[in-house]
């Protein structure tokens, strides 16, 4: 138990150091990353005797090493290389100025919103029918109301081809993209423009809820909450600044969002039969802290059968190679099962996959890359971006930072053909409703001005 509390204490000190070093920026990826691991460590330490799971010094060292490397990558992200007036390269801190958004009020017609909602509802119905078909293949003989556990067993733990129609897949991607886009529009109206909420804009996200339930997972609901919290906080700070009162209010909303998620978490678990063994408290604690003793168990007791290069990390690359007939097989994203406090568990923090596949060098490199990528992206959308596209994408792919305490979702989920396709649809939707009306004309105007200057220079030189 002493090591568990020592682990928590070190992570807490790391979080406090980053908090003051970033000038109390609670939205910085590195602060969020350190803090969520500290929370996970605290939950594990509190339940140490109940779970009766060991936690060795070597486990603590590997975890701290990997977490610290995220911080190293983040530190690098706060600096940029520029060319000085003399032509030499020099390293400078990323500019701290904050540029206001140039996007005016976003108006989407009621008829357009209703048509989009109808498309999502049609997709919902088709998705329900397809999920029922899959559940029958998995052995469901109890009817549509009992299909979710069967669907989950096939979609998550099987490499079988489910033969989902291509059109249905694309409609699902488009529906999800519309739902997140409308959440962005709602947040922009409320938190940046300070206008009343337009209830009609809630319709597409509410219609998308059906497909979220059909995923049989809980992560998609957490993604929505994370997306809303992150983009709203960045918008609000960019417009009105950042002070103690605002930080306290944001933390209240974050706690409220977490509470809402855990209620959904419990309900979703009940639908799929995952939450029937435990009460609400144990369920939450196992989710938040169970990955740490699981990682220790992996280090000392597991002998994984995944021995190929990147077998656990680069699963999506394996799938692509398999579809191109360049590989004989690919592994499922689900890892081996173990038992924590009588509950089957197969998440070992994101660090397990990196450490298993590449050892210390790969763990350091991948964690540093993650820290650099998210920090640099965050600095751009929070300080320099004039439009909203970067913020939309940043919020859409931010969830791996928070969920790293549980499992890797960056290489497994973000760097997948599904997410890349969804981002493509997000870009198209954004351009259609915002970019072509407000940003493209300004861009063409600026481009025309530069061409005019270039022509004048050529005339002068001649």
Automatic annotation (TrEMBL):
Tree of life domain: Bacteria
UniProt keyword Transmembrane, yes or no: yes
NCBIfam families for this protein: glyco_rpt_poly
Organism: [Clostridium] cellulosi
Entry's transmembrane regions: 30-49, 61-81, 173-192, 220-238, 250-271, 358-381, 388-405, 411-433
Name under which the protein is recorded: Putative membrane protein
Record's keyword terms, sorted: Membrane, Transmembrane, Transmembrane helix
């Amino acid at each position: 138990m002493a090591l568990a509390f020592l682990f928590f204490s070190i992570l807490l000190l790391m979080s406090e150091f980053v908090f003051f070093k970033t000038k109390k920026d609670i939205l910085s990826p590195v602060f969020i990353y350190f803090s969520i691991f500290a929370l996970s460590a605290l939950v594990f330490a509190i339940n140490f005797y109940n779970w009766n799971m060991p936690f060795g010094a070597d486990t603590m060292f590997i975890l701290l090493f990997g977490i610290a490397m995220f911080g190293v990558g983040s530190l690098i992200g706060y600096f940029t290389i520029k060319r000085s007036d003399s032509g030499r390269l020099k390293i400078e801190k990323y500019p701290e100025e904050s540029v206001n958004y140039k996007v005016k009020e976003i108006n989407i017609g009621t008829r357009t919103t209703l048509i989009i909602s109808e498309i999502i509802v049609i997709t919902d119905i088709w998705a329900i029918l397809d999920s029922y078909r899959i559940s029958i293949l998995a052995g469901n003989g109890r009817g549509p109301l009992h299909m979710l556990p069967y669907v989950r067993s096939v979609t998550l733990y099987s490499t079988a081809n489910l033969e989902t129609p291509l059109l249905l897949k694309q409609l699902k991607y488009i529906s999800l993209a519309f739902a997140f886009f409308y959440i962005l529009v709602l947040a922009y109206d409320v938190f940046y423009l300070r206008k009343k909420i337009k209830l009609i804009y809630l319709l597409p996200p509410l219609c998308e809820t059906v497909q979220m339930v059909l995923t049989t997972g809980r992560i998609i609901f957490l993604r929505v909450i994370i997306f809303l919290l992150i983009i709203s906080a960045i918008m609000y700070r960019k417009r009105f600044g950042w002070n103690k009162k605002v930080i306290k209010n944001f933390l209240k909303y974050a706690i409220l969002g977490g509470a809402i998620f855990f209620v959904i978490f419990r309900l979703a678990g009940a639908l799929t039969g995952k939450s029937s063994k435990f009460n609400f408290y144990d369920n939450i604690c196992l989710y938040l802290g169970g990955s740490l003793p699981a990682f220790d168990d992996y280090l000392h007791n597991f002998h994984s059968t995944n021995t190929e290069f990147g077998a656990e990390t680069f699963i999506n690359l394996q799938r692509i190679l398999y579809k191109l007939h360049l590989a004989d097989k690919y592994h499922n994203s689900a890892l081996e099962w173990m038992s924590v406090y009588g509950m089957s568990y197969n998440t070992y923090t994101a660090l397990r996959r990196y450490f298993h596949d590449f050892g210390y060098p790969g763990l350091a490199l991948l964690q540093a890359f993650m820290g650099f990528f998210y920090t640099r992206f965050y600095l751009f959308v929070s300080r320099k971006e004039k439009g909203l596209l970067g913020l939309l994408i940043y919020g859409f792919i931010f969830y791996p930072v928070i969920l790293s305490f549980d499992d890797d979702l960056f290489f497994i989920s973000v760097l997948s053909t599904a997410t890349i396709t969804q981002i493509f649809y997000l870009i198209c939707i954004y351009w259609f409703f915002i970019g072509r009306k407000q940003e493209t004309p300004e861009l063409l105007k600026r481009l025309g001005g530069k061409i005019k200057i270039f022509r004048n220079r050529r005339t002068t030189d001649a």
